[in-house]
C-alpha cells in the first residue's frame, strides 16, 4: 500500500470525521430512537480514502503514473459512469436505513457506493474478505455481508442484462459473426469452464470431483460476437461430461424443441446446392456433440480443411469471453475455499451480469485483465464423437458455402 | 398342516375351497407344506412334485401337469418372476430376481423434452457408425444418462450417490432451482427435487388432521372452508369440527364484526361472551383486555 498522496484531503476527512462524531454525540443526547438520514453521517468520501490507502506507489521508471480514473477501473473493473449505473440498480436494496444499516469501523453508515465498491473489489480481486475489508476500513464480516447483499440485489435487478436476443438483435449478431468470421447465420458460440474450489475431504464432496481431481463447478455460456453472454447455465458439478452438461441445460431443450435458433434459414443459391439451407446455429468446440443447431469442427482431415479455422475463429468469442470473465472477476479464477455450493452459482451469475453490463454500457472490456493462458488450461478437452446425421449435412452445407465463397473471393 | 380328506365335490371343506379359489391343488398337502417351509426358494421346489405326484398321489399325468402349471402361474404372480413360465424346466433355471429387469424398458416418457431426448438417442445411435470405441462409450454414457429430470422414471438408483445441486439456468423463466443429482461412476441422473406439489400435498394431509386443532384454537376459518370444499373427508371432519367449536366460530365472526364496526364494539363483545365455551371465553377476555388497553 502506498503512502497517502493527499495530506490535505486526509486532514479534511479527519475534521469531517470529528464533526460527525460530535454530531453523533449530540444526537445521542437529544434523541435516541430516530436517526435521520444525514449525508454527512454516511461514508461518502470512501473513494478518496480508498485511493489514498491503496493507490500504487509512483513508479520512477514509468512516465505516466496511474491516474484516478484508470485506478478506479483497475480496482473495480468498471468506469465511474458504469459504477454509478450499477449503484442505481441496487440502491433500493442496499441503502442503509438507520438503525439497521451497515456501519464501518468508525461507526458511520456505509453508503451504497461504498457497499458496491466493496462487493466489486471482492469479486474483481478474489482477495480474501479480510484484506478487502482492510483496504476499505471495514471488517471481514461486513465484506461478507455486503458482497452477498450485492449479489442478491444484482441477481434480482440486473436480469435484463443477460437474456436471449430477440429477432432484431439476432440479426445484428448474425451479421456481426459473418463480418468477423465469414460464417453466415451464426447466432453464437458456446463454451464452458470450471470454477475450482476446495471442499472438505468427505464422501459427500466426491460428486464435485472432476477428471483432474479438482473439486469444481461448471459454467456453460453462449456468447455473441461482442463476447456478451446470451445464456448461461451453472451449478452442475465439473466432473460431468460436457455433452451431459449441455443436455442438462434449458438451452438444449429449447433448441431441440424449436424454441430457440428457429429463425429464418439461409437458402444456398448456387446451382449445385439448390434447395439446401443453412439454419440458425451456434458453434462449439470438439467437446460438444455435432447437432443440427450446434456445429463443431471436423475431427478428420478431409476436403474441408479450410472450415475448422473459420469455425475456431467464431468460437474464440466464447473462449475469450470466459478468459475475460475469469480474468476480470478473479474470484472465479482463484481456488475458492469451501464455498457454499448453493451460493456459488449466484456469484458466477453476477460476474456474468457485470461482464455484460460493461459491454452494454459501451465500455471496452479491459483486455489486460484477461487470463494469459486458456481459461480452462488445466483441463484437457475430451473429444465428443456424438454426431447427429442432420448435423453432418448442416456442417457440410456450411463448409461448401465457405469453400465457394473463398473461391469467389480468390477469383475476384 | 392337517386337513380332512376330500369327500366329494359337495363335501369340500373350506380349506379346499380356498385352495381351489387360489389355484392350489386340492390334494397338494405336501406341496403346500414345502411351500410354507421354503417360501423363498419356490423355483427349486417346483419341479420336485412332478415325479412324486406321478408315482404316488395321482396317476393322471395330464391333470397333474395342469395343476402344476396353475400353481406355477400363481407363484409367478406372487413373486413377479416376469414372463409366465409354463415349462418347469425353464422355471428351474430362472432366478428369483428378474433376469431381464424391467428398468430397461422406458415406461413413462411423457414430457416433451424427454421425448425429444429419447429421439435424440436414437438419432445418435444411427449416426454413430463411423465413430470409434470412445464414441461408442460416450454414446453408452449418453444412453445411461437418459434419466432426465421430470421423467417420472424412478429407475434403480441403488449404488448411486446423491447430491443436491442449486442450478442457475437463464433459459428458464425461473433462473434458479434445485435438482437432485445421482452419480455412479460415469452415469449421471438428474431428478427434480421433491416439488412444491408434493410438499403441498403432505401439508394438506397434515391440515386435514390438524383442522380440528386449528378450529379448536379458533384458527383461520376461511382456509378451512376452502379446503373442505375439495375433499369429502375434509368436509366431514370440518362439519364435526365446526359442530364442536361452533361457539368459537361464532365468536370469530363476532370478532371480525368487531373489527369492521368499531362503534358497537362493546355490545358485540358481550354477546360473544354469552355464546362461547371455556376456550372462547378466555380468548374474548384477553381480547377485551386488549380493547380496554387500546381505549
Question: Can you offer a commentary on this structure?
Answer:
- The complex is a heterodimer of chains A (412) and B (295).
- Chain A contains 13 helices and 10 strands.
- In chain A, strands 3, 4, 5, 8, 9 and 10 form a 6-stranded mixed sheet that branches.
- Chain A is 46% helix and 11% strand.
- Residues 1-11 and 13-38 of chain A have low confidence and may be disordered.
- In chain A, helix 7 (140-157) crosses helix 12 (344-360).
- Chain A is elongated, with a radius of gyration of 25 Å.
- Chain A has helices at 7-30, 46-54, 68-76, 80-94, 112-125, 129-136, 140-157, 167-181, 242-248, 250-256, 307-328, 344-360, 389-411, and strands spanning 42-43, 109-110, 186-198, 215-223, 229-237, 266-267, 277-278, 281-283, 294-295, 336-337.
- By secondary structure, chain B is mainly α.
- Chain B has a domain at 161-192.
- In chain B, 58% of the residues lie in helices and 8% in strands.
- In chain B, a hairpin with a 2-residue loop joins strand 2 and strand 3.
- Chain B is flat.
- The N and C termini of chain B lie far apart (83 Å).
- The interface between A and B is large, with 49 and 38 residues.
- Strand 5 (229-237) of chain A pairs antiparallel with strand 1 (161-169) of chain B, so a sheet runs across the interface.
- Chain A: Residues 1-27 have a biased composition (Basic residues).
- Chain A: One of its GO terms (cellular component) is ESC/E(Z) complex.
- Chain A: One of its GO terms (molecular function) is nuclease activity.
- Chain A: Pfam families: DDE_Tnp_4 (PF13359).
Amino acid at each position: 500500500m502506498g503512502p497517502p498522496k493527499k495530506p490535505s484531503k486526509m486532514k479534511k476527512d479527519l475534521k469531517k470525521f470529528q464533526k460527525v462524531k460530535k454530531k453523533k454525540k449530540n444526537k445521542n443526547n437529544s434523541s435516541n430512537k430516530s436517526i435521520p438520514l444525514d449525508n454527512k453521517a454516511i461514508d461518502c468520501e470512501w473513494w478518496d480514502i480508498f485511493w489514498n490507502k491503496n493507490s500504487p506507489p509512483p513508479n520512477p521508471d514509468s512516465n505516466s503514473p496511474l491516474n484516478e480514473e484508470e485506478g478506479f477501473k483497475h480496482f473495480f473493473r468498471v468506469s465511474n459512469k458504469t459504477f454509478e449505473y450499477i449503484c442505481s440498480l441496487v440502491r433500493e436494496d442496499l441503502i442503509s436505513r438507520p438503525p439497521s444499516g451497515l456501519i464501518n469501523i468508525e461507526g458511520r453508515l456505509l453508503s451504497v457506493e461504498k457497499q458496491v465498491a466493496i462487493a466489486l473489489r471482492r469479486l474483481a480481486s478474489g482477495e480474501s474478505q479480510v484484506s478487502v475489508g482492510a483496504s476499505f476500513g471495514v471488517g471481514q464480516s461486513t465484506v461478507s455481508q455486503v458482497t452477498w447483499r450485492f449479489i442478491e440485489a444484482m441477481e434480482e435487478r440486473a436480469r435484463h442484462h443477460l437474456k436471449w436476443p430477440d429477432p432484431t438483435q439476432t440479426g445484428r449478431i448474425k451479421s456481426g459473426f459473418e463480418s468477423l468470421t465469414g460464417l453466415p447465420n451464426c447466432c453464437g458460440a458456446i463454451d464452458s469452464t470450471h470454477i475450482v474450489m476446495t471442499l472438505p475431504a468427505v464422501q459427500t464432496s466426491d460428486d464435485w470431483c472432476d477428471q483432474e481431481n479438482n473439486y469444481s463447478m461448471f459454467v456453460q455460456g453462449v456468447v455473441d460476437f461482442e463476447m456478451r453472454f446470451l445464456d448461461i447455465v451453472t451449478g452442475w458439478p465439473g466432473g460431468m461430461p460436457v455433452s451431459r452438461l449441455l443436455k442438462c441445460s434449458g438451452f438444449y431443450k429449447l433448441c431441440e424443441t424449436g424454441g430457440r435458433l428457429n429463425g429464418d434459414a439461409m437458402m444456398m443459391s448456387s446451382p449445385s446446392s439448390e434447395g439446401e439451407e443453412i439454419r440458425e446455429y451456434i458453434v462449439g468446440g470438439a467437446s460438444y456433440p455435432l447437432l443440427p443447431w450446434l456445429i463443431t469442427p471436423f475431427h478428420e482431415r478431409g476436403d474441408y480443411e479450410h472450415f475448422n479455422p473459420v469455425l475456431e475463429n467464431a468460437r474464440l468469442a466464447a473462449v475469450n469471453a470466459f478468459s475475460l470473465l475469469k480474468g476480470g472477476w478473479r474470484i472465479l479464477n482463484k481456488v475458492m475455499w469451501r464455498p457454499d455450493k448453493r451460493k456459488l452459482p449466484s456469484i458466477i451469475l453476477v460476474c456474468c451480469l457485470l461482464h455484460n453490463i460493461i459491454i452494454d454500457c459501451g465500455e471496452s472490456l479491459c483486455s489486460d485483465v484477461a487470463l494469459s493462458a486458456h481459461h480452462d488450461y488445466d483441463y484437457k478437452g475430451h473429444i465428443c464423437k456424438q454426431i447427429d446425421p442432420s448435423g453432418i449435412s448442416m456442417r457440410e452445407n456450411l463448409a461448401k458455402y465457405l469453400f465457394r465463397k473463398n473461391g469467389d473471393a480468390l477469383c475476384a | 398342516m392337517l386337513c380332512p380328506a376330500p369327500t366329494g365335490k359337495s363335501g369340500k371343506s373350506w380349506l379346499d375351497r380356498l385352495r381351489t379359489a387360489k389355484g392350489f391343488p386340492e390334494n397338494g398337502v405336501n406341496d403346500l407344506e414345502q411351500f410354507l417351509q421354503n417360501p423363498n426358494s419356490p423355483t427349486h421346489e417346483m419341479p420336485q412334485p412332478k415325479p412324486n405326484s406321478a408315482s404316488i398321489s395321482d396317476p393322471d399325468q395330464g391333470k397333474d401337469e395342469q395343476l402344476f402349471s396353475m400353481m406355477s402361474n400363481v407363484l409367478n404372480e406372487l413373486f413377479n418372476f416376469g414372463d409366465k413360465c409354463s415349462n418347469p424346466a425353464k422355471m428351474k433355471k430362472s432366478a428369483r430376481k428378474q433376469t431381464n429387469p424391467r428398468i430397461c424398458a422406458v415406461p413413462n416418457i411423457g414430457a416433451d423434452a424427454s421425448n425429444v431426448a429419447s429421439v435424440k438417442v436414437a438419432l445418435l445411435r444411427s449416426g454413430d457408425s463411423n465413430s470409434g470405441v470412445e464414441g461408442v462409450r460416450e454414446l453408452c454414457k449418453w444412453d445411461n444418462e437418459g434419466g432426465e429430470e421430470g421423467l417420472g422414471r424412478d429407475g434403480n438408483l441403488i449404488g448411486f450417490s446423491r447430491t443436491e445441486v442449486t442450478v442457475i439456468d437463464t433459459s428458464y423463466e425461473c433462473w434458479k432451482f434445485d435438482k437432485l443429482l445421482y452419480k455412479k461412476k460415469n452415469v449421471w441422473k438428474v431428478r427434480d427435487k421433491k416439488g412444491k406439489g408434493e410438499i403441498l400435498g403432505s401439508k394438506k394431509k397434515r391440515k386435514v388432521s390438524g383442522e380440528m386443532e386449528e378450529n379448536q384454537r379458533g384458527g383461520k376459518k376461511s382456509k378451512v372452508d376452502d379446503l373442505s370444499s375439495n375433499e369429502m373427508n375434509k368436509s366431514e371432519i370440518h362439519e364435526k369440527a365446526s359442530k364442536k367449536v361452533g361457539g368459537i366460530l361464532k365468536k370469530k365472526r363476532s370478532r371480525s364484526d368487531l373489527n369492521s364496526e368499531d362503534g358497537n364494539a362493546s355490545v358485540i363483545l358481550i354477546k360473544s361472551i354469552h355464546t362461547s365455551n371455556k376456550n372462547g371465553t378466555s380468548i374474548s377476555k384477553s381480547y377485551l383486555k386488549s380493547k380496554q388497553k387500546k381505549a
